[in-house]
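INFO  loader      accepted 1 record
INFO  loader      residues=130
INFO  predictor   begin
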Amino acid sequence: MRQLRKIVHVEDDPDIQEVSKMALELVGGYTLFQFFSGQEAIEKSSEIEPDLFLLDVMMPGLSGEETLAGLRQIETTKCIPAIFMTAKTRASDQAALRALGALDVIAKPFDPLELPSQIQALWDRSQHCP
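INFO  predictor   done
INFO  writer      dumping tokens
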């Protein structure tokens, strides 16, 4: 099974970016590449060759859903697993995000100490790019 090492995180809130960075790098041991916009992530992700996308849903410019759609149009990123992070906690909202092809949805606010294990558990049960 392929190991989870590199995560592209797209989040427009600098505070959430910082907390996520500490949680995923210091606690989880992952390499994190952070972007404030979906457009920037779409433009740079092919160079990074990430193992996973962690996408905020509500962002100015491209939403998380639009960002995922853009990433799915690129040959090198089209099958990389994605997880959405959102404050939308209704079951119907989360089901709609999963229907777009996301592994799952992590609700905000999240526990920074639990975030790495949540992501790893989702990764372990997912299908990966060949």
